[in-house]
Amino acid sequence: MQKHKETGWRSIRRRFGRTATALGLLTSVACTSAQTPASIAGAGLGPAKPDEVSVATWNMCGVQQWSCERTGSPKEKFQQLRDLIGDSDVRVLLLQEVCSDDLSASALRLGPEWNTVFEPYVSVDSAGARTAVECTDRGRGRAGFALLAASRLADVEVIPTEQPTVGLHRGILCARVPALGLRVCNAHVSLRESDDEHPDWDFRDDQLSSLFAAASTDARTVVGGDFNSPPPGKDKKTAWIWPSEAYTTYRECDQKGGSRTGRPTHTDGTKIDYLFTALTRTGCEVVDTKASDHRPLVIRVSRPEESASPTPEVSTPS
């Protein structure tokens, strides 16, 4: 019944002419096995093997006006980034709620091989005017989501997604990492009541469908980010928002067998941060941190051959 009700809302939204909206590409470029991933939270995955690569997602809570005043300084957040790279050999990071100046400074401190792509959050008013969100603390630039990689980023694109008519636009940012043979997509999914004119509209199903459609264009893709949603195994009321391929064609970092749950990634005890791939997973870690209200999530996968098409790990619904 819930899914039918929400599907009705989607039809109503479209009937009134709301179309898919792509964020303006304001980027800056400095530039199968069913193994069970294992790692104790915070222990670190250690160095990757030559045929493995680690990817992390982390909502840094760096936009202070969004209740992030007490979640660590820019220096502490950079230290967490450096620890992820050192302890788990992370080579690509999907970041949300990061300030553009902090991102640039972090890449500079990490070294010349580190490259970034940044996309700002945009606030849209009732007249349709679009304004990039600024970080209010000490002129740290714009607020947004980003990719940070230890090699060149190529074929950068913002994936068109359904967005609120009035309110905050987040989005999906994808790029290839040629040196690693990977493609990555970073998604920051809307909260349920994101549309100031239509608080009952829910955009998460459309946005997740767009994300996994983007993943389907290249079997070497790792997708993830802050989905602002519990896994379908935890909350049946919101299970309808998830595309069927999320836990079948693809596998989540913390997914074991047919289970669709996972360890908490937010300080409130919920899991809302994810990493999915069709590649073979060899490790998964939830990292304890005091530098955000989100815990970083790290997935380790077998690095694909450039010409290889991986066989997805397939599971049955639970």
How many DSSP E strands? 15
According to CATH, the fold-level topology is: Deoxyribonuclease I, Chain A
- Helical amount: 10-25%
Largest sheet: 6 strands, mixed
Q: Rg, please?
A: 18 Å
- Average pLDDT score: 86
Total helices: the number is 4
From the 3D coordinates, which CATH architecture would you assign? 4-Layer Sandwich
Structure keywords:
disordered N terminus; globular; 26% strand; 6-stranded mixed beta sheet; 4 helices; single chain; disordered C terminus; alpha+beta; 318 residues; Deoxyribonuclease I, Chain A
Q: Which SSEs are present, and which pair or pack?
A:
Elements: H1 2-15, E1 52-59, H2 74-88, E2 90-99, H3 100-110, E3 115-120, E4 122-124, E5 130-132, E6 143-149, E7 154-158, E8 167-169, E9 171-177, E10 182-188, H4 204-215, E11 221-226, E12 251-252, E13 273-277, E14 281-286, E15 297-302
Parallel strand pairs: 1-2, 10-11
Antiparallel strand pairs: 1-15, 2-6, 3-6, 4-5, 4-8, 7-9, 9-10, 11-13, 12-13, 14-15
Description:
By secondary structure, this protein is α+β, with helices and mostly antiparallel strands. The protein has one domain (2-302): Endonuclease/exonuclease/phosphatase (Deoxyribonuclease I, Chain A). Helices cover 16% and strands 26% of the residues. The chain contains four helices and 15 strands. The strands form three sheets. The chain has a six-stranded mixed beta sheet with strand order 3-6-2-1-15-14. A six-stranded mixed beta sheet has the order 7-9-10-11-13-12, covered by helices on one side. The chain is globular. The two termini are 20 Å apart. Mean pLDDT is 86; it is low at 1-36 and 314-318.
